[in-house]
Amino acid sequence: MKKKFFITGTSRGIGHSLAIDYLAAGHSVIGCSRSESTINDPNYCHYIVDLSSEESIRTLFFKMREDDVVFDVLVNNAGSAFMNHILLTPPKDVEKIMNINFVSLFHITKESVKIMRANGESGRIINLVSIASSLNIEGESVYIASKSAVSAFTRSMVRELSPFGITINAIGVPLMNIGLVEKVPLHLKETILSKQGFKRFGETKDISNVISFLMKEESSYISGQIINLAGVPI
Amino acid sequence: MNYESISQVIINTIAEHKELLGIEDSQDITPSTRLYGENGVLDSLSLVHLIVEIERAINLELKIEVSLSDSKAFSQERSPFRTIDSLTSFALTRLS
Predict the structure, then answer these.
(1) Which residue of B has its CA nearest to A62?
(2) What ipTM is given for this predicted complex?
(3) Residue A86 CB contacts under 8 Å (≥ 6 apart), including other chains
């Protein structure tokens, strides 16, 4: 059954790759990013938004309502990587990372639920978090805290969203062969890979496989779960 | 934008969504109707539904974007959503 996706952060990396894959599979995709669309497909609709700005997100959803946009699946993909030692981390960087990785996700989720609740009992929210939260990698404490906030949000939202028939789950993304991995130093990549159960980079299909499972009608009884990839236990 | 127009949007929205909100058809909806808190006609989930529907109705009918989120939403004594009157006044402050 064809679905309508809303994927945040579709200009590059995982979000871009997921959008291309779902479009190729015949689904419709709404995407957003700070820049113009890099995807040219009749079933793709793009909005420009600054996810670090609540006002920009409110404007995004105002436009969506004007355009009568509806969607079944929200993939909260957009986020920012960050590595630094706590003693060298300016407080403003903590606020920035928490804002882009958690607060903006809160705003997007809140406004999306208002749209998805009107679709009947089929809504799916999938948050992309990180296996780093389970591995406690040094130098990633702020990034891990921001992603762990999303995991906690995912678990605790279940009871608030279940009356609307909406499930919310998270996928613990491993070290990937695309996207934010470019910012990760080589020695850290080796450390993370050595701690994964499977010592390879993740691929988009590893993520889309879990999304496809969670999208199924039969998965309407699964919510509040964090599914780590790469053989990393929670 | 005035008190009467906002109040009317709220009353119309409640009337339109009585089943969703768990309000009996026979229940009269007037500006003094207790919505939430002691003797209110709504439980917390119905209140969530109502507020979202009112935001949507204001957006559609009055062409104005408004957020009615509030940190005291579920306060039994201080919720701005206790009555249609208090909700109308609250919405007006958000629209001003």
Answers:
(1) B65
(2) 0.75
(3) A141, A142
Instruction: Return the HEC string of A26-75.
Output: CCEEEEEECCCCCCCCCCEEEEECCCCCHHHHHHHHHHHHHCCCCCCEEE
Token pair listed for B49: 């539904």
Q: Name the minimum distance, in Å, from the CA of B60 to any CA of chain A.
A: 9
Q: Which residues of A touch B43 (CB under 8 A)?
A: none
Tell whether B55 is within 8 A of chain A (Cβ).
yes
For residues B78 and A56, what is the distance between their CA atoms, to the nearest angstrom? 31
Q: Which chain A residue lies closest to B69 (C-alpha atoms)?
A: A110
Which tokens belong to A141? 């404490």
pLDDT computed for residue A121 by the predictor: 67
Q: Which residues of A touch B56 (CB under 8 A)?
A: 65, 114
Q: What is the pLDDT of residues B20-48, one digit of tens each?
A: 899 998 988 988 899 998 889 999 999 99
Compute the distance between CA of residue B84 and CA of residue B12 in angstroms, rounded to an integer: 11
* C-alpha distances in Å from residue A109, one per residue of A52, A57, A71, A154, A201: 14, 11, 12, 10, 29
pLDDT at residue A187, as a whole number: 83
Looking at domain B3-95, what is its CATH homologous superfamily?
A: ACP-like (1.10.1200.10)
Spell out the domains of chain A, with CATH numbers in brackets.
4-228 (3.40.50.720)
HSE-up of residue A140 (Cα within 13 Å, Cβ side): 22
How many whole angstroms separate alpha carbon A169 and alpha carbon A156?
11
In angstroms, rounded to a whole number, what is the distance separating the alpha carbons of residues A3 and A25? 10
A117 touches chain B (CB under 8 A): yes
